[in-house]
Amino acid sequence: MDFQLVSDYAPTGDQPEAIAQLLGSIRDGSQHNTLLGITGSGKTFTVANVIAELNRPTLVLSHNKTLAAQLYGEFKNFFPHNAVEYFVSYYDYYQPEAYLPASDTYIEKDLSINDEIEKMRLQTVATLLSGRRDVIVVSSVSCLYGAGNPADFHATAIRIETGQRVNYKQFLYKLVEALYTRTERELEPATFRVNGDTVDIMAAFGEFGNQCFRVMFFDDEVEAIYAIDPVSGQRIRMLDSLTLYPTSLFVTTKERIAAAVQQIYLDLGKQIERFEHEGRTMEAHRIKQRVEYDVEMIKELGYCPGIENYSRYFDGRAEGTRPFCLLDYFPQDYLMVVDESHVTIPQVHAMFGGDRARKENLVEYGFRLPAAKDNRPLTFDEFEQLQGTTIYVSATPADWELAKSEGVIVEQLIRPTGLVDPPLEVRVTLNQIDDLIEEIDKRVKNDDKVLVTTITKRMAEELSKYFDRVGVRNRYIHSDVDTLERIQILEDLRAGMFDVLVGVNLLREGLDLPEVALVAILDADKEGFLRNVRSLTQIAGRAARHSQGHVILYADTCTESMRTTIAQSNRRREIQVRYNMEHGILPHRAQRSGTGQSTLLTNRNAADEIPDIAYPPSENHYMIAADVQKPYGADENIDEQIDRAREDMERAAKSLDFLAAARFRDRMYELQKLRDEAPKK
């Protein structure tokens, strides 16, 4: 089936040209292409048109799962008749196993798996292995972490047809090998029930995830296959064939398990011998005890906690070889789209090093066998080898993407709204704060918002305090402010609870605020990471969604970065203004923004859960993410509050509302801390 793009809009502005250029370069064999699209220019719509024309399976890679969820929703709307899948980390929260030698502290792995996301991951793999070509997978960088062997996953799938000769007992064995569980009770996902020659199965995931199937045998022949109601057992329709995929990405055969156990024992002996030779008896005893316990569980149950650390043995990989990952499930001609590539690519670069540093300590001190180091994300070189034809999408692509693209850089500078880049004005620093307050007053009278970016945390805090004293409603953001508190601060800005946001780094991707009419950049002439061309362009772009957007750079000298940024902005403005005049377009402000991630925060007793904040706040105006340290009376059961917070977290995560889920998780942790610290009666 081909991709079918559904939209009420046709490509406009320079979108048609961008689409044509990308298609032309890819069809000419270009492996690396960059789409340099300014904020609000409709980059996602352009990419959707390219996907529809190329008709290739596509991986859209995002640097975090919140933005991945937004992209998933957009592509789902663009391609309602095709397979749009979602593949992100299935942990609601995750504390990795670690050992800190300096304090002799062992941190045990702690996690909570989101069953709904796990099903979506399995559905992604099943769709890719089904042979469909009209597949879009929106993923976070978790797709570069270890996954099961695609050959094993495919081989363990069960395919039957009406009239097929199938050994009845062998069919049941295959269900067990695919990790389905036999039950005599009510069917749940990934279970089956046997009644004579009839087998009722509830699929583990996917389009049939909430349906049951009945397979009826006559002797060793499949007599009939039905989709049935899971409660009443009533037949819904007859099927000619049925494919059931394993209930986990990590499946293997009994033979593979036996071989793995043998190799684990051999490597355990080598590690014990090494520790004893070095006189480290404690480490030798520790690794012996831990591994033997794991192996006994694997032999009895086929599983043990931390089984991923033995993945190399089950995959049959040699020491040091890369693990399988989601990229192995794509065909060779797939298309990769790297969203916000200037952030995503560095993240891919850093993943391997962070994981290896943690694993080195676990291996060195006898908590894990060396094979644990082979359960890892891809190195960057391995990632490059697995890349398909790639489109890097960014408003400010980094040097690496530009170099890889070798001149195949497609610009998209026209916004469908007709908005032009905000003008950049340089002003001297003399009396800059008084001048800034005058500019703020002008915007506040029009009910607009202002962003002010400083060069240091201390300056952000002091400026915020000064604004408090002169009556400017404001908050500040920098790296010491909790991430989830920042989310709440942005929601409060959108809600009109204050007027000025002060921060050190306000160029965060996804920070699109149509309410912002002015961006003020203090110390714009201080060359460095926060004042280079890319940073200045990103910061200035925060005012690009307002029809009266304006950027003021306070500086006493004009640096090369400032000159380049201003020159690029003027060039874009000239192109945008000329296009608007030629086509008679009147710019209009973008729609009011909102993350769409905080809906669940107000679903139950919002006034009790998250109290309103009055502005301007007191001098010490810190606010924790979940704000749970409030008095509770003797009639309130803290365990019930913890259970309710957990339920809220799980419900939010199932709705893919990860920001809300993180807030409820914080609330749960804080309540648990209060309970543990409470005096015992």
Name the features.
681 residues, alpha/beta, 7-stranded parallel sheet
Derived from helix and strand composition plus strand pairing, the structural class reads alpha/beta
Mean pLDDT value: 83
What is the radius of gyration? Answer: 28 Å
Oligomer: single chain
Work out the number of β strands. Answer: 25
The main sheet comes to: 7 strands, parallel
What does this structure look like?
It is a single chain. With 681 residues, this protein is of the alpha/beta class. 40% of the residues lie in helices and 17% in strands. It has 20 helices and 25 strands. The chain has a seven-stranded parallel β-sheet, sandwiched between helices. The chain has a six-stranded mixed β-sheet with strand order 10-11-12-13-14-15, covered by helices on one side. Helix 15 (483-494) links the parallel strand 22 and strand 23 (500-503). Helix 1 packs across helix 2 (43-54). The longest helix has 24 residues, at 254-277. Residues 592-635 have low confidence and may be disordered.
Brief synopsis:
The chain is an alpha/beta fold and 681 residues long. The chain is 40% helix and 17% strand. A hairpin with a 4-residue loop joins β5 (98-100) and β6 (105-107).
